[in-house]
Structures
1.
Amino acid sequence: MSVESTIHQEHETAEVPLQENTHSGPYYRPNVDIYELADQLVVRADVPGANNNRIDIQFNDGALTIHAQVPARQDSQGLYLRQEYGVGDFYRTFRVSEQIDTSRISAEYAGGVLTLHLPKVEAAKPRKIKVAAK
Amino acid sequence: MVLRDTVTVHPLQQLRDEVDRLFTNVLTHPSVSSAARLVSGRGFPAVNVWEDTENLFVEAEVPGLKAEDLDITVVGDELTLKGQRPEQPETEAAFHRRERGVGSFTRIVRLATEVDADNVQAALNDGVLLLTLPKSEAAKPRKIKVQTDLKN
């Protein structure tokens, strides 16, 4: 039991999925901006060239996972004269500490940027406490 | 900007890279912290280049940029990609993470062959910029016919 949890721990730190994927090929880690507003958390991820219908977002148990499938853009036979980046699926997972109302999570994808809105549950919203003057 | 792995570059290209780097100039918006700078070592954006018999293709990933944010010019065998990633409007926000840079960039890419600058096409879809640069006539491969039996 303890051995299993150690392995689990290592995988978590490395941020790779525990299960094997059905297709081989590298996953790329998208750059993100995450910021907090009074009523929501906003995640913006750079995922250029993704298939709009194949962006999978999961929020389970405080873990937010983004998996965007990216179709190949170059003929696999073709040779690059110069290759500075690879084309492949994006994957990234985060631990989200705020309490999120999972039923109201929304996402949009435009210009290669995925924007996620994670609304906070009522209890997590900051509440101004009035200080009564005596 | 995106974490990518290996770069496959022809050895002679490395010399060109050094020259390109001299010409790469990246500015940051004064109010943005260094963590949000766009450039990453090689120069932004990263480009992939390939060809067929008719065209040279240059592709770059520029998520978050619109057509009006880009300024692309071609002179001879030199391609210049200039642009600006606009700053996000959120000012009241507390950032947990800030990895996506903002600011302006300039990247000069030396092309492998001469191209017909008048007929270059550029398409921007989902943050992927694809330039199709038709090769100039002189640069296209020409089949050489072998003549046999050259006897009088």
2.
Amino acid sequence: MLILISFKSGTPIYLQIVEQVKAAASSGALQPGEALPSIRPLAEELRVNRNTVAKAYSELENQGVIETLPGRGCFLKENHSGLRKEVRRKLLIEEVDRAIVQAHHLQVPRDEFIELIQERLDVLDDKRRAHEDHKED
Amino acid sequence: MNSPTPAIQIENLTYAYGRAEAVHDLSLTVEAGRCYGLFGRNGAGKTTTMKCLLNLLRPQRGQVHVFGLDPAKHEVDVKRLLSYVPDQVAFYPWMRVRETLDYLASFRANWNRKIEQELFERFQLDPAQRTGNLSKGQRTQVALIAAVCPETDLLVLDEPTSGLDPIVRREFIEAVIGAYQQGVPGKRTILVSTHLITEFEGLIDEFTLIDRGRAVLTLDADQARERYQKIRARFAQSPPELDLKTALRVRRDGRELELIVNGAGADLLERLRQHNPEALTTEALTLEEIFVATLKS
């Protein structure tokens, strides 16, 4: 998993790290049980404050994405969010609404929007399959 | 966790060399555990401010405190709590690197030999070389080792990377992150003055931009990148006549319009959108671009 940060995106750096770890987890680039880079080398490599990486990791831990094993590091958890189903749905709705607003402004009609979502889900499935095949080899 | 006493507190600091005022009514607070940037052009007053913290200069008006202590009254206590890398590093030229570090370590209660060894390897320094024969980059590296090994709560860096080549600059910053920030979170505070902002961008939590001795802007780095945006719009015909007074800077070129905004981005974007642009993009300004935009407007 390679993390790339941009100072031009307007998204806080710790959130960029959070989002990229989550993306890697959902595409299979990072597998459950697999270790994340330790805070120090990652901070040095990205040349960002260690506190920023630490903040990203504690955010990921709060969201139930990773777990910290004392003395061993941070690992990707099995896909079990500790949140109740309604809460998980509510969090997702916020994200979906944001995409819908954006679609409206970009004049993407309803059917095309739904088609696009199907397409993106397929892309993610393909990626995940590719990672699994790779693992079996 | 964080002690309520700020690592650095500067209140209404004023200092003049003769009749030339270098710092005027400057106030800023650095919370413990943060990395704070002091940005400004050459001669903006950065070094003068830092010298007041180190008791190399006495404030003519206002006050400075380091961990609640007045450097003029508690000089030894303050120096115990901080280490300093100046922009012009000077050692006794006849001393070898090894002797220089031993000499500097003798003034310190604590000296982490493991970190010293690690940095020696990273920088590939020869302990037997006389400091008079070191390059500027190597001298800065030795100064950084001397500043990191005592494991002080505060690290003050005054233009540490100016005049160094890009590789040495990168290594310097990686060493600050790797070796200095290794300590207890919330206990390692950094104050860095620089005009080479890009390299320190990822390290900076908060910054003050000073110009001609005055604080022009103090902001959290993430907030700054959120507020300062560059908007580019391209239209099918010439750009519409819009009231762009809220923009910091406006550039027009044919069918294209480029705006730099501070916080007023959403409103301007909405108004641009109503004129059906062919393309409309936004990006955050880097801290260096904010520096330039603020000082040129």
3.
Amino acid sequence: MGETQEALQFITDQARRLLTEQATPERLKALLDEAGGFDRELWTKTAELGWCAAAIPEEQGGIGLGWEALCQLSEVLGEFTVSLPLLPNTLLANTLIAAGEGDGDVCTRLLSGEAVATLAITDRGAAGIPAAPAARFGDGRLSGAKAVAPFAAVADFALVSASADDGVAILLVDLGAEGVTREVVNVIDNGRAMAQLSFANTPATRLDGGEGARLLSQLACAAAVVTAFEQVGGARIALDMAVAYAKERKVFGQAIGAFQAIKHNLANMYASIEVARGCALDAMAQLEAGSPALVPYAAAARVGASKAYDFAGKECIQIHGGIGATWEYMPHHYYRRARSLALELGAPSYWRDLLVDNVHMMAEGY
Amino acid sequence: MSNAEERDHLDDYLKNARAWLAEHAPKYSGAARKGLTLAQDRDLGRQWQTLKSEAGYAAITLPREYGGGGGSEAEKIIFANEEAKYDLPVEYFGVSLGMPVPMLLKYGTPEVVADLVPKAIRGEQIWCQLFSEPAAGSDLAAVTTKATPDGDGWRINGQKLWTTWAQFSDWGVAVVRTDPNVAKHAGLTYFYVDMHAPGVEVRPIRKLAGESEINEVFFNDVYIPDSYRMGPVGGGFKVAIETLMIERYSVSSETMGGVGVDYLLKLATEATINGRPAIEDGEVRAFLADTVIERQGLRNIFRRAMEDIAHGREPGPEGSIRKLLMSVRRQNLALLAMDVLGPQALIHRAGGDAQADATLAWIESAPYRIAGGSDEILRNTVAEKVLGLPQDHRPDKGIPFNKIG
């Protein structure tokens, strides 16, 4: 095992240990019960362990473990249905670094976890990620509304897409600035710290260097790949819970897991999760390599993982029977999280479209 | 070898295999096979097999002294993948070299191995596997073909079914019942048999698409010496399972010989549905996306398994979903492609290439979901072996075979 692999193993083992201890059902349920729920205490703890800087290069003040670290940590978060803004913090920090702002105060605070970021690239009334966002940017000011976004309820900074005269603009917005409205709304998965943001003549800093469309696609794809791991992690636990219950629960004199209607459903869940994992791993390799063909791989990972998680989430409840549909049991956390992750970055139907349009970019053969 | 050295070695191996195939394969594939009878095609295959054996590309994992390649599992998979890109007459030797011959290497006497294994590897002789019966398919241990002691040997009576290439086979391996008074798994014994012996009768079966590689085989008082026994009396089920485990990672084209993503994509771009390009149809797009996702996921699983095999590690259990997904996909993809083609897709061009003909791909696809583990059995296998769920209820468990109702 190489040094990086050992460090990755260390950080994910540490993450599983910590979350086993911290992510108790009581705590997760409390978060679900209030709109905009966020576990600030856990965030601070993990920030101290360097999780939000794991993927950032060492020369930029990070730990230098690459996208793989963020992907693996996200998988662990997914397993525990824990929501921490590792992804938006990394994406915003990366974007700032690329824009030459890596030494600034914002980037430093994002990497230390002192500040929280949110990614606001979806619009109200649009299923996907709009190439021409409804929000407008001009003369250093942003106006308009974005769709509900995770961590927007607690974020200090937002990475926002908007339309400018010369095309898409990617903006850094200080959410403490004038004209920002943050509406915390009740959602199906309140553990995501969701809010919908709108801006009225809010000061914003452009970060795309005139390459807004390319940067938007890059951000969306990177987010899709990392999120795919979170989805696979969650789906896998939903499957594990269903398997464990199917072995233990007896009806008509035998464990329900002996019935083919149950067994085959579980086998199908397993198959869809392993397909999704394969897609996610290949997409991660493309992301890590900075491949120009990232779009279809990211789209395959996103759609595959969204489908696998939705499938595992709903069948996990089904296999549990009535008890699976209670507040007390855990399956509904996964059922909710599956839907939330499937929609936050634009619906699977949007990504499916991207996949079909770009399938020719994928490698031939193995 | 270090990881890097191993990778370099396999890269070189791939390069050489590609060059060798580019030089030799065209003379034995595609147009060279057009218009041949099945027997002529088999003979062309024998020549190809001999050529491969001389170059070390036949039975790559078997010892060089018998005409094999003396190579690794990884090399075998790499070569098979490249070879599958040509339409070569290799199907006659798949079963032969895949299962019976490795078993013979393990259980045969040195003299028998030295005599028969090289002939099989060079394609001069073909072996078949006599497992399934009319009432024993998924439930292999239910076989009723029996062997009764006769002097120094055994007399075999009964019927085998779905035996691939039995009509061309010189030898076969068979699982038969030697003791009906014990539980069904315990009363079986594994033998090899001479397919030219008196009393062996082979009848080809015409499959739904007209192909006839499968047969029923009747044994009428067929005598075999006890030296043809492989493993102990009563140990046949264990040996049979060993046989089925040999092919750790089955190699086949991604489309299982049917039409694939590229075919459907091209078709959907050219065809129209009610005046609009078929590629804009929601069902077509959704199916294409699903297919690409599944293909990508399985490619990754395959590559990881290759890595594991190359480093002598057991591949993960996720490979067990491959055959299930690919055979279901093959059928559905062909069906949708036919929808896009419309009524003209009803024209059946027998003898064509199913990789370029949706109709052929569709009609031939049905048995792929049954042979080598039906969808249902494969889902059971994933559920039981991978997820650890309980076995199905088996009312015949532990009951002597002759008492099962």
4.
Amino acid sequence: MTPRRGFLRYACLAASAAVLVAFAACGDKEKTGDDGAVVHFWQFWDLAVIQPLVDEFEAQHPDIDIEVEQLTWATGLEKIQAALASGTQPDVCELGSTWLPRFSYEGVLEDVTPVYEAERDSFLMWESALWKGRVYGLPWVQGSRALFVNRSLFRRAGLDPDQPPQTWDELLHAAEKISQLGTGIYGFGQNIGERYVLYKKFMAFAWGNGGDVFDESGEVVLNSPAVLEALEFYLKLAPYSLQEKQEVLDQYFKTGRLGMQVSGAWNLKNYKLEAPDLDYSVALVPKPAPDHGAHASFAGAEMLVVFKASPQKEAALQFARFLQAYPQAKKLSLAAGSVFPAALSAMHDPDFTTDPRVRVFVEQSLTSRTTPAHPGWIEMEEAIDRAVEESLYGRRAPRWCLDEAAREVQEIAARFQR
Amino acid sequence: MTNRRRFVLPPVAWFLLPWAAVYAAFFVFPFVFSFVLAFLDYNPLNVANTRFVGTANFARLFGDPAFGGALRNTILFVVGTVPVTTALALGVAGLMRGKIPLKGAFKAALFLPSILSVVVIALLFKLFYAPGGALNQALAGFGVAGHGWLTDPRTALPAIMAMDVWAAVGYYAIVLDAARTSIPDSLYEAAELEGAGAWATFRHVTFPLLKPAIAFVLVINTIRSFQVFVEVLVMTQGGPLGSTNTLVMYLYDTAFRRLDYGYASVVAYAVFLLSGVFSIIAMRRLRPETAEGRPI
């Protein structure tokens, strides 16, 4: 063997070893610092939004070092799953309120019931962290959906823009009037053909009418008369509605071709930038009748959880509570412009009650609902989506669709009873 | 050297080692691991609770209407795109035989979709199919009413299939064109002397000699089409009403949304077997033949 070939041989071996070591290193993470705790925090916000809060906490707690990692909505859940499977999960993590119940159920989250008991009345959205009488997450920021009303189209249709629809009848009437303005102009927007969205809009009407997915005893009541009535009303809106994906509906509203839609506060920010001249207002989601039902809507929350396996639970919980506290949640909400603090203090803060549109969102969250805190929710929402979609496409009678969805929800619930 | 009989790795093995390490980590290991998973009830949030369930995950396949729907949609996708793409690619490759101006630019333009990320193409087509998108605007120019291409369960899958054909034709046309240039001109001259027309030339000269390349195109495209996923994830997420739910989309949902990794692995192996069977059929049918028409 010549020395030269020997060298190449070792170089290749070294390269292979380097490749393997690099893989091994991916999962190997420093858990503790030399002079105090290192808390790993995974979250979905832009670092520009979150970093100031982290800096503030680190300045107050020189012994705790926060390592922030930004996840994306497209792959974040997968990354958290992989981390849990390999034991490399962070200490503190942001989780969406519809994902949280599965994590609570699997027993990977630290029980924060004591925090709940102390802070129960200061925050909204605790329900989504509840599982079998214990609480597994801290409500951080929340966002509900409210009725967007195009005032110019209202005027053109002979409607009073200062009197947005309060009831189902008024909503239907306004939608019909606006849709008569001409082709390409729609009275109302209905979500179709995509995930995560449809049930949020439909359930607003079902909840407002006293319907629900489960009753208090945990029985499935998705095919109750109250839900059926809501679905039948939703179908009445269909002839005057643009049925499209959320981004298309938001786009149509922005360009003044959609009279009304139920959507989220992200539009306030976008419309301010992209359509400063758009004359619109925000109203509570209409209720069934003046003397019946409620202005219900869907609300989702970003929750903060501490993983049970964290070696830094105390510091982790301290950091999570710091973020959850009103001043921090407020800073985050104002910087992000699409959410509101879960803390009830926001209800009386001029920063959230001066702008009439923002105030409606804050008000709407008081009568909004979270999705049931069930570990099988991700599958259950698909069943609801399917029922509404099948009815909207006219494939099946609404009653049949709801019976079928109720049966599916029942089946999913049964799988999680172990 | 004293111990001559010691096993010595040939030099080439040392050069292959870095690649082999990556291959083992990212292909062999997941391949074996997912086979093991197929027999387990495994969920990454609760690894400690992993249970051996025997062939229960396999049995579920047969009574699962969602899998049935995904299988149907995937086969529709494969059967509806692969032959069309191949035929169009053959046609385009045939055009390139003639003298066309700016042939280089034409080839480059054809190949362009292949270097774009599928996500980019899918996002562009989402805009293209949108209510106010280019397609509906063009149709409006002819007085045809707009259509929600991706929100209508009848048109969503065909819309994605059309996009796939558009994106794939160029690549396969280049492959077939490269194969065609290896056919000796003398054969075409002979065909011309015999008085063969364009179709007869294609039928008796080009097609038989392109068979291996066509087999390659069919096999590669079939395997790729069975795995159609990113397009669906970006454009429709399997909807509306499950009309674009494909096998890999279903696999993805089963694993990453429902955390049912065992069953998802079974679906993965179903995709593997199906694309294998289709590829073998394609290769057998397009085996190069001897002059007497027997397979070589």
